[in-house]
Design brief:
- The protein is α+β, with helices and mostly antiparallel strands.
- The chain has one domain.
- Helices cover about 35% and strands about 15% of the residues.
- It has three helices and three strands, in the order αααβββ.
- The protein has a three-stranded antiparallel β-sheet, with no helix packed on it.
- Helix 1 runs antiparallel to helix 2.
Amino acid sequence: MRSRRSRCRRSFTTLVRREEERLARWALELARRGLTGDARRVAEQLFQLAASTRVRPPRRVKRLFCKNCRTPLIPGLTARVRLRSQGGMSYTVVTCLSCGWIHRYPYRKGPRGGASISPSAAEYGSGGRDSGEREDKGPQGPPRQG
């Protein structure tokens, strides 16, 4: 049987996470409208909430904001996103266009002959077609080895 304290903590954590995600969506919406100063203030509130409640925001929420200036990172608007591979390591390079800060997030390649596992579009707040799949289903050649 679970103790009352653990049930209360779990429900508290759920409430705080919902609020963090609501603040993140609000900050992204403000940034898309061009109000980056207001978006930064909302992001600062989000991270103050996380610090005061000791509930860490999920990784997908943390990666939506620049760690240096707290600007929401929206590809093509406030961030540049590139995929790089060097020395057997693959990573996503996200550059904040406000302060120039560079974030590198490693990702694993999938099984042999399969597609690589890349960060989801939702992680960076883009909402477009970022899956890496080709629109036309024509011949693509032999599968890559590696």
